[in-house]
Every structure is written in structure tokens, then in C-alpha cells.
Amino acid sequence: KQWYQRRVRAEENRDDLLWKWLRFDLMLEFKQRSAVPFPFSLIAYVLRLARWTWRRCCSCGSVRFFERREAQKKNDEYKKAQMSLLERECLRNNVTKMEDA
Questions:
Q1: Cα–Cα distance, 66 to 89 (Å, whole number)
Q2: How many CA atoms lie within 13 A of 73 on its CB side?
Q3: How far apart, in whole angstroms, are the C-alpha atoms of residue 94 and residue 47?
Q4: What is the pLDDT of residues 2-56, one digit of tens each?
Q5: Which pLDDT score is estimated for 91?
Q6: Cα separation, 36 vs 43, whole angstroms
Q7: How far is CA 97 from CA 28, 91, 93, 94, in A?
Q8: Main-chain phi, psi angles of 16, to 5 degrees
Q9: CB contact set of 55 (below 8 Å; sequence gap of 6+)
Q10: How far, in Å, CA of 25 to CA of 83, rounded?
Q11: How far apart, in Å, are the Cα atoms of 79 and each of 66, 74, 92?
């Protein structure tokens, strides 16, 4: 009986972690998605691609390179912070579940 309870608890923890990860991924997707309806969103994506291409191809030397590098570092730090928040929340939930058991 204890084996079954441990197994169920482990599955619940795994499912809870998966649910939180999927929720986090969905929030990121909505943040990156265009706010305009479908037919116009294609135009928005084409404009975004054109802007990205323009910035990549027509940058003015090393100054733009270092600006892009700093922006990439900030983006990486943001993603790491988001993951650490998710991990802390999962750990906190697991600890409270273990205390309740």
C-alpha cells in the first residue's frame, strides 16, 4: 500500500511540474504572438522579418554587434530568471506537499 501511495505521489509531482512548464510555455507564446487578427498578423510577421533582416544586414560595424550581444545577454538572463522562478515554485510546492503527507 505504501508503495502505491509513493508511486501516485511521484506521478502527481511529475504531472504538476509538467503542467507548470506547459503553462509557462503558453504564456511565453502569447507574449511573442502578434496582437492583430489572423490575416493582418501575416503582414505583421513579414514586417518583423524585414526589420530583423534590415538590422542584421545593415548594421554599422562593431557598435551594433556589441549592442546585439548585450541584448542577447539580457534575454538569456531573463530566461534563466524565469526558469529559476519556475523551479523555485515547483520546489516550494513539492516541499509543502511532502509536509502535508
A1: 34
A2: 6
A3: 45
A4: 888 888 888 888 888 888 888 988 888 888 777 777 787 888 888 888 888 877 7
A5: 72
A6: 10
A7: 27, 10, 6, 5
A8: -65, -45
A9: 64
A10: 11
A11: 20, 9, 20
